[in-house]
């Protein structure tokens, strides 16, 4: 069974993330969306909320699992006996970052392969941070995030 882990912060999940998950689920037998528990970073949504939002927008895709993880990604992969990391590339900045991360992970465990998928041009400008910024200033984020979680983001920003 070919399994890939798609790691990230997903604070919150965007249409760009969802597109990578859907396309990944067509290529791999299973995609595990792994939400990083990062206590240093200030998040809009808690880890449990982020996991719940991703589950809600991916519940119709049979071969997708959503989990949270702590610590090094390579350790999480080892525990689960998985060797593929799935990533999305929007810009050359993503490329530079992902190339570095892939090299570090390979150094930590030579079995690991990082597979990068090019962002769909209609979503390549979307990031969780610009979603939050636009929403904070009252802009329309409908084009950026799945409909099912729109209200959660607006309510959270207001709170
Ligand atoms: P962000 O950079 O928005 O905080 P994450 O850390 O949650 O996002 O990103 C997880 C992965 O998803 C990374 O590989 C990132 O490059 C990719 N990604 C993020 N946004 C998009 C998008 N709009 N289209 C394709 N891939 C994306």
Gross geometry: globular
C-alpha end-to-end distance? 43 Å
Number of E-type strands: 5
Proportion in β-strands = 15-25%
Give start-end ranges of low-pLDDT stretches: none
Name the helicity range. 40-55%
Largest sheet: 5 strands, parallel
What ligands does this structure carry? adenosine-5'-diphosphate
Mean pLDDT comes to 96
Q: Using the CA coordinates, give the radius of gyration.
A: 15 Å
Q: What is the number of helices?
A: 6
- Adjacency order of strands in the biggest sheet: 3-2-1-4-5
Element-by-element helix/strand order: EHEHEHEHEHH
Structural class of the secondary structure composition? alpha/beta
Summarize the structure.
With 159 residues, the protein is an alpha/beta fold.
Provide an overview of this structure:
It is a single chain. This protein is of the alpha/beta class. 43% of the residues lie in helices and 19% in strands. It has a 5-stranded parallel β-sheet, sandwiched between helices. The radius of gyration is 15 Å and the shape is globular. The structure holds adenosine-5'-diphosphate.
Keywords for this entry:
159 residues; alpha/beta; 5-stranded parallel beta sheet; 6 helices; 5 strands; 19% strand; binds adenosine-5'-diphosphate
Secondary structure layout:
Elements: E1 3-8, H1 15-27, E2 30-36, H2 47-58, E3 64-69, H3 73-80, E4 84-89, H4 92-108, E5 113-118, H5 128-136, H6 150-158
Parallel strand pairs: 1-2, 1-4, 2-3, 4-5
Bound molecules: adenosine-5'-diphosphate.
């Amino acid at each position: 069974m070919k399994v890939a882990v798609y790691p990230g912060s997903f604070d919150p999940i965007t249409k760009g993330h969802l597109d990578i998950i859907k396309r990944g689920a067509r290529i791999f037998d299973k995609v595990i969306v792994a939400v990083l528990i990062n206590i240093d970073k200030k998040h809009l949504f808690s880890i449990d909320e982020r996991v719940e939002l991703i589950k809600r927008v991916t519940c119709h895709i049979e071969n997708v699992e959503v989990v949270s993880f702590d610590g090094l990604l390579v350790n999480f992969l080892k525990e689960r006996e998985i060797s593929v990391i799935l990533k999305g590339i929007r810009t050359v900045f993503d490329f530079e970052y992902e190339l570095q991360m892939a090299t570090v992970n390979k150094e930590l465990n030579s079995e690991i392969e990082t597979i990068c998928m090019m962002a769909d041009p209609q979503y390549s400008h979307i990031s969780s941070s610009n979603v939050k910024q636009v929403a904070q200033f009252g802009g329309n984020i409908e084009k950026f995030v799945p409909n099912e979680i729109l209200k959660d983001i607006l309510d959270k920003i207001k709170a």
